[in-house]
Design goal:
30% strand; 6-stranded antiparallel beta barrel; 6 helices
Length: 271
């Protein structure tokens, strides 16, 4: 995995500068907030409940297997959804100190503020994290994860506070300057709900916060082997921004033009 490039999770200072991390956050549709890990974090102050210890260990195993190509991406989706809903949301929030991270968010725009929780190094070693990350996205009402697709990546989004309107599409094929999408999910995600993405299912995703203090806890694995040939190249963060709100064709499919980050943010987040 020597060529793997993922954003610095803040658990060490070896993976780039603040500017590089800021570029990742901008490319991900995030706002101006940029948080390093909290060296003095009070995470796990209440002890280590066995269900959460098992969750952390299983998370590392599951992500490692899909990164190595030992697990089909749709199997990862099913298993990560089961795993991340197997522990109580309030316990996960407390154990990862998400409330403390969120208190630093300022929500200056309708793009997301972002922070990376710290996982116990004795349960999930830094070496095991080269191909994956965990992240919290926070939005005020009307805040938006702007529409995009991924290359060589799987991800899952667990709602831990507030609610979202989620729109996802299956990515059927690439054109020279657009992706052809088939609508899949269009509905409300309340606290405790989870969605996941891969080449094979719900690759396009677009979330709009329905309440103030709407938060997702995300897991992402990068440099996953493609399960079909991409025609379009993604940016360095495995993302392609698209106009997923384009009018559907007569057959219900959406031909979503590729957009720059700036154009997509302006249209979908007023940024």
């Amino acid at each position: 995995m020597g060529g793997t490039r993922i954003p610095d999770t803040g658990e060490s200072d070896r993976a780039g500068t603040d500017d590089a991390r800021r570029r990742f956050l901008q490319g991900a549709g995030a706002g101006a907030i940029l948080l390093a890990a909290l060296a003095g974090s009070r995470a796990w102050a209440g002890g280590r409940p066995e269900p959460l210890v098992r969750w952390a260990r299983e998370l590392a195993v599951l992500n490692g297997r899909v990164a190595r190509g030992e697990l089909a991406v749709t199997d990862w989706q099913a298993r990560i959804e089961q795993l991340n809903t197997s522990v109580a949301v309030e316990d996960l929030v407390a154990w990862l100190d998400i409330d403390r991270l969120e208190r630093a968010f300022r929500y200056p725009t309708r793009l997301a503020d972002v922070a990376d929780p710290v996982l116990p190094a004795d349960l999930v070693s830094p070496g095991a994290r080269r191909a994956w990350f965990v992240r919290v996205f926070g939005m005020r009402r009307g805040g938006t994860i702007i529409p995009h697709v991924h290359n060589h990546m799987v991800s899952a989004h667990l709602v831990v506070s507030g609610a979202f309107h989620a729109r996802t599409h299956d990515r059927l094929r690439d054109l020279d300057d657009a992706v052809v999408l088939k609508p899949s999910i269009d509905g409300r995600l309340a606290r405790g709900a989870i969605i996941s993405m891969s080449d094979r299912r719900d690759n396009q995703h677009w979330l709009v916060a329905l309440e103030d203090r709407s938060l997702t806890f995300d897991v992402g694995v990068v440099d996953v082997a493609a399960s079909w040939p991409y025609r379009l190249a993604a940016n360095s963060n495995h993302m392609i921004f698209v106009d997923a709100g384009a009018k559907p064709q007569a057959d219900g499919l959406v031909v979503a033009p590729v957009m720059s980050f700036g154009a997509c943010a302006a249209k979908y987040a007023g940024a």
